[in-house]
Amino acid sequence: MTRILGTVLAAGLLAIAAAPSEAMPIAPVKAPSGVEQVAGGCGQGWHRGPYGGCRRNYANPAAHACPRGYHVGPGGRCRGNGK
Prior knowledge:
Blueprint: H1 2-18, E1 46-48, E2 54-56, E3 70-72, E4 78-80
Antiparallel strand pairs: 1-2, 3-4
């Protein structure tokens, strides 16, 4: 009886010890490639617009009535955002 209990205990410990071996597999090593990934395929400084076209990441300040951080309020005056 003691021998069977010892064998079962040894088998159980072996099963428990083998279980975490898959918890952290070895990560594959990726070689650096010559391809640079960019946002949406538009290139650096550009992004995809609502209809799939490429747009610049910044606005042209001359095309706006108010400086950055402001919006056109009542009477056509510039007001700070959040006011």
